[in-house]
């Protein structure tokens, strides 16, 4: 059952095994070639791997600058409002950058787990529930799907690269997502705007 953040609605106990959190993405209008090259020479993406303050930027093939960040509580549909902490951070990193033309915003849900390691739960025989990509499932879910599919096809789980366990609860799964959205995300956004 690879239904990501909807899995909690589909099987008892799963809702408490991860933190369902919103994540926003923003994109600029296509940038001038010189500005794009000044930000990301050669088109290479940039990422800071801090687990507490995720920060990455990339250019798409139309030279739109794309990034993800916690959504804005008050104006989640406004590209410039959602991107404001990122804009401030970029201006500190790239003095003289100016205001970027923030053009698009969209928001989805991610399945955070405390150790940020994807896992496979097996609540009953023959039901497998991958979860816990923690906002990084594009590669992880692809690899996990190959591993799990291969193990199911062979009916041999000994070599599966991901541990298969009972459902493991995530501490404070009811409270933490609400606290994160109401308090922690606004603090991160303010911190990014002002200092970080
Ligand atoms: C804004 C945003 C930015 C992100 N950026 C990145 C990134 O840069 N890098 C990265 O690695 N990851 C990123 N992620 C996370 C990544 O998208 C997920 O980790 C990944 O998509 C999880 O894969 P999945 O196959 O488990 O779930 P999904 O890709 O969400 O697929 C689950 C599928 O199940 C379907 N489904 C749900 N319920 C049911 C049902 N009852 N019946 C039938 N079908 C159902 C859904 O329609 C969906 O098609 C981002 C996520 C968001 C929201």
TrEMBL record:
Q: What residue stretches are annotated with the FAD dependent oxidoreductase domain? A: 25-148
Residues folding into a coiled coil are none
What's the superkingdom here? Answer: Bacteria
Enumerate the SUPFAM superfamilies for this protein.
Answer: Nucleotide-binding domain
Q: Where are the transmembrane segments?
A: none
For this UniProt record, give its keywords in alphabetical order, as a comma-separated list: Oxidoreductase
| InterPro entries tied to this protein | FAD-dep_OxRdtase (IPR006076), FAD/NAD-bd_sf (IPR036188)
GO terms (molecular function) for this protein are: oxidoreductase activity
Q: Give the protein name, as stated in the record.
A: FAD-binding oxidoreductase
């Amino acid at each position: 059952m690879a239904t990501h953040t909807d899995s909690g609605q589909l099987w008892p106990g799963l809702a408490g095994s991860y933190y369902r959190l919103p994540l926003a993405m923003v994109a600029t209008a296509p940038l001038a070639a010189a500005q794009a090259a000044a930000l990301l020479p050669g088109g290479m993406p940039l990422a800071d791997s801090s687990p507490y303050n995720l920060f990455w930027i990339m250019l798409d093939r139309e030279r739109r600058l794309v990034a993800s960040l916690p959504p804005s509580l008050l104006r989640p549909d406004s590209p410039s409002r959602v991107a404001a902490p990122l804009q401030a951070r970029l201006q500190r990193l790239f003095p003289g950058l100016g205001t970027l033309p923030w053009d698009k915003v969209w928001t989805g849900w991610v399945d955070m787990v405390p150790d940020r390691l994807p896992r496979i739960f097996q609540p009953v025989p023959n039901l497998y529930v991958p979860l816990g990509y923690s906002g990084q499932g594009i590669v992880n879910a692809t690899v996990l799907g190959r591993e799990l599919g291969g193990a199911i096809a062979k009916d041999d789980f000994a070599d599966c690269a991901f541990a298969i366990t009972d459902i493991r609860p995530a501490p404070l799964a009811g409270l933490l997502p609400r606290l994160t959205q109401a308090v922690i995300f606004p603090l991160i956004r303010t911190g990014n705007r002002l200092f970080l």
